[in-house]
Amino acid sequence: MDSVAQIKGRLIVVEGTDGSGKSTQAHLLYEWLLGLNCKVFFSEWNSSAIVKGATRKGKKRQALTPTTFSAIHATDFADRYERQILPMLKAGYIVICDRYIFTAFARDSVRGCNLEWLKKLYSFALIPHITFFYKVPLEVACERILSGRPQLKFFEAGMDLNLSNDIAESFRIFQGRILKEYLALSKQYKFTVVDGTKDVHYQQTLARKIVEEKIELSHFRKRATQ
Asked: Which domains are seen in the chain, by residue range?
């Protein structure tokens, strides 16, 4: 693992269950920092070009075991971490991640992977300077997703776990278990918990205030070219 002394930047992570509004808040935070002329980089979960094709094919064929699913996500993360996240942090950027290792801890452990094994698998990753966790009641999160999606996806709903023959009910059970894992992780890793049921503007105002309190943003503003 790289020495913390080598890291000039700051890592901000946004986590939450599906339907928590985390992605909206992550993008708003990124746009705000851009507007302040800060050096900022954005990365999102499961976006590495190297493994996207394998993930898509595996999901389409419903051929992914929990361990295979976990290994693919770990490969995706490791590639983005080494090629994007870590270099940007060393270069003095603020890096915002829409989901990070805690997504794997929560989802993969619910799928049956050993949590301690998962922590060792991702042990190369730095602990974020700030981790926002957008907490919403299970029914609120499910209502947001079910009302906004024409159809749930097989793995998104946890259908591979045989929780229920009804895809909507499987999704509720799966998300409920993930939420329980997140709450446990929240205590261990000292997440900054935000009420995801509040107004979007209120949530963003709070996030910006916390960032300003914990990070000296003047250190990350780009210098005007001569």
From this structure: 4-220 (3.40.50.300)
Please give the Cα distance from 94 to 57 (Å, whole number). Answer: 33
Query: What tens digit of pLDDT does each residue of 4-49 get?
Result: 557 999 999 999 999 999 999 999 999 999 999 999 999 998 777 7
Q: Compute the distance between CA of residue 119 and CA of residue 198 in angstroms, rounded to an integer.
A: 32
102/14 Cα distance (integer angstroms): 10
**In this structure, are residues 11 and 85 in contact, taking their beta carbons and an 8 Å threshold?**
yes
Would you call 47 helix, strand, or coil by DSSP? coil
Single pTM value for the model? 0.90
- C-alpha–C-alpha distance, residues 2 and 67, integer Å: 27
How many Å apart are CA 190 and CA 102, to the nearest integer?
A: 12
In sequence order, the 6+-apart residues with CB closer than 8 A to the CB of 169 are 163
